[in-house]
Amino acid sequence: MVIDRFHKYPVNNFSLEMKIALDCWHFLYFLPFLLVILCVSEPMSSQDWDGVVVTAADFQSLQAFKHELFDPKGFLRSWNDSGYGACSGGWVGIKCAQGQVIVIQLPWKGLGGRITEKIGQLQALRKLSLHDNSIEGSIPYSLGLLPSLRGVQLFNNRLSGSIPPSLSFSPLLQNLDLSNNSLSGTIPPSLANCTKLFKLHLSFNSLSGSIPSGVIGSKSLIFLSLDHNNLSGHVPDSWGNNNSTTRNKNVSFNLQSLTLDHNSLQGPIPPSIGKISTLTQLDLSHNNLSQEIPDSFASLSRLSLFNVSYNSLSGHIPDSWGNNNSTTQNKNVSFHLQSLILDHNSLDGSIPASISNLSSLVVLNLEGNKFDSEIPEELGRLRNLSVLNLRGNHFRGPIPASIGNVSTLTQLDLSHNNLSLEIPDSFASLSRLSLFNVSYNNLSGSVPTPLAQKFNASSFVGNVQLCGYAGSTPCPSEEIPSAPSPVVSKPHPRRHKLSTKDIILIAAGALLIVMLIICCILLFFLVRRKPPSKAKDGQAVPRAEKGAPPAEAEAGGGEAGGKLVHFDGPVVFTADDLLCATAEIMGKSTYGTVYKATLEDGHQVAVKRLREKITKSQKEFETEVNVLGKIRHPNLLALRAYYMGPKGEKLLVFDHMPRGSLATFLHARGPETPINWPTRMKIVQGMTRGLFYLHSHENIIHGNLTSSNILLDEQANAKVADFGLSHLMTTAATSNVIATAGALGYRAPELSKLKKANTKTDVYSLGVIMLELLTGKSPGEAMNGMDLPQWVASIVKEEWTNEVFDLELMRDAPSIGDELLNTLKLALHCVDPSPSARPEVQQVLQQLEEIRPLDTMTVSSGDDGTGVPSTSE
Question: Is residue 784 situated within a structural domain?
Answer without folding.
Answer: yes
